[in-house]
Amino acid sequence: MNEETHVTTERIDGIGLIVINNPPVNALSRPVRAGMLECLAELERDPAVAAIVITGSNHRFIAGADIRELSGPLEEPTLPSLIHAIEACRKPVVAAIGGLALGGGLEVALACQARLASSDSRTGFPEVKLGVIPGAGGIVRLVRLVDPTTAVDLVAGGRAFTAGQALQHGLIDTVTTSEDLRSQAISHARTLAQQLSHRISALPVTPYDVVEFEKTCKRWLVKARGQESIVAAVQAVRDSVALPFDAAAAATREEFLRLRQSPQSEALRHIFFAEREAQRVPGLEAAKAGPVSTVAVIGAGLMGRGIAAACIRVGIPTVLIDPAPEALLKAPLLIEERVRRWARSEHIDEAAVVETLSRLSISAELSALSEADLVIEAVVEDLSVKMQVIAKAERLARHDAVLATNTSYLDVNALSAACENPGRFIGLHFFAPADVMRLVEVIRGDRSRPDAIATGFAFAKALSKIPVLSGVREGFIVNRILAAYRQEMEYVLEDGSLPGDIDRALEDFGMAMGPFAVADLSGLDIAWSRRKRLETLRRAGERYVKVADQLCEMGRFGQKTGAGWYRYENAACKDDPIVTELIFHASQERGLRRRLVSDEEIVSRAISAMAGEARKILGEGIALRSSDIDVAVVNGLGFPPWRGGPLFYETHHTS
Known about the structure:
Elements lengths: L6 E6 L2 E6 L9 H16 L5 E6 L22 H10 L4 E5 L2 E3 L1 H8 L2 E5 L3 E3 L13 H5 L5 H10 L2 E3 H6 L5 E3 L4 H12 L17 H15 L3 H15 L2 H15 L3 H15 L17 E4 L3 H12 L4 E4 L3 H22 L3 H8 L2 E4 L10 E4 L5 H14 L5 E4 L6 H5 L8 E6 L8 E5 L6 H13 L3 E5 L7 H18 L3 H11 L5 H8 L1 H10 L13 H7 L13 E3 L2 E3 L2 H14 L8 H21 L6 H12 L8 H7 L3
Parallel strand pairs: 2-3, 3-4, 4-6, 5-7, 6-9, 10-11, 10-13, 11-12, 13-14, 14-15, 16-17
Antiparallel strand pairs: 1-2, 7-8, 15-16, 18-19
Helix pairs in contact: 1-2, 2-3, 5-8, 5-9, 8-9, 9-10, 11-25, 12-13, 13-14, 18-24, 19-24, 24-26
């Protein structure tokens, strides 16, 4: 038994077990590494032990390194020391992977001679999401089991394999049930003890198609858009196939050590911990979330379809309700298209696609929501229309169901007035496309009960999304920041830029999309409706750019109408002379002499606008923490996570 009892040994019929018990996820902290080395040496010395199995308590393996250690000095024993000891062990070592084997956990598994995994396990290298790459030889071993082209996707994308995918690609040897995992691993270890087997480091690189490999590498270098860890991950895989094992392992270790001290890694760790902190809401500690085993979504438009697709993807039966025959006719086809796109990206087979789509039902009758645990209203962004729908939905819903509105800007307290029981009413603000974007703003109204808010958080997490609490105020968190950001960028239009100039500058900075491309994707009519509603509140003499209103008056609402800030022809986005003419005329009316606005000025003004509005939101108590705002803007507005969010960036940025 080692210090702090994080790691213990067992012996079963001549097979030694190293059992890791470091709740909640068996992270590879220094005491765990030290304990594993001690236990490994103990079992290797024992003549009664023929082979060794590494496993975790409660069907868990190792979910990765202790991330807190990334920012401090590296303490012995380091992970490479542990990996070397496992691989150098004179007795066969088998990894029994239950739950997660991520990052350093997968590197430990790859040091073993065999890997068995439970059917619910996931394996992968998510290090790029923390601004680093695997630093203990994991990539170099990976390409000796897995096609290097697949390895690039795995490491540069930070994605995880299901057990079936890991088996298909050769990353693991056997899949079994959680209940049988330990016994199967012991049996496999016993077999290995009786035969000659090889360490992965002694194997050649898996044969691969050089052309496809290079295409994949180049695709990820384009997608990196400034994120150093993705570029480093691609180079590490290239080194792993081109260099001898020891040289490649040394190169990846050196790059890991460099990246862990980088500003980008610091920013990504900030977002990592901030996402977890956002789940801690004062006052909800004792609140009990209700079950959400069935969902009803009212409104088969863009948002309603996206929410329904997100639900069925994670196994929640969902009814999509809309009285319009045309909407109901199109919805299943459009949802299937989205599900199949997701399936292709995640390598999901046809049987799983069919099963996913079977969870969707369609109805023209509002009464179809009567058995749902959660009812989400996602109709047109109009206060009176929404209130009518909410009032009818509440009368038909189960008495214990939670009711939610998906509104971008409207007053959740005003909407709750449509309910006889406003305590069960909350806001769930999804972002388009709702099945892709990770953020859900959970809006706490003045009368929302804690259990209803807790249910909203639990539901968002069940969808693999990031919930962030917001109070009630126009635009909540993200759309309020977006409005300030867009306004400043429209000023830049009048000053001398065009939409393409601004979008390119901000995408080069790392934004997922520029503000005008985002507006076209979301639909210009939503923000237009808000501006008209707030027109009477505009201060006299306040600078106001009319171009977006003029586009809407022309019926140019973005991609859905084929034209907005850009024209869309055969899926291609093109600059439009009509828009240029409107912008030039706006500058002339303002009496401005147009000038060249540099990319640096565009980015600086954008960040200042975002951070300035964020500080107001924080000061008003609409958001709980500055880190919550960073999380919301990263996950809802496409701010580059490797820059840490607007408030983190403004505080930490150095030129």
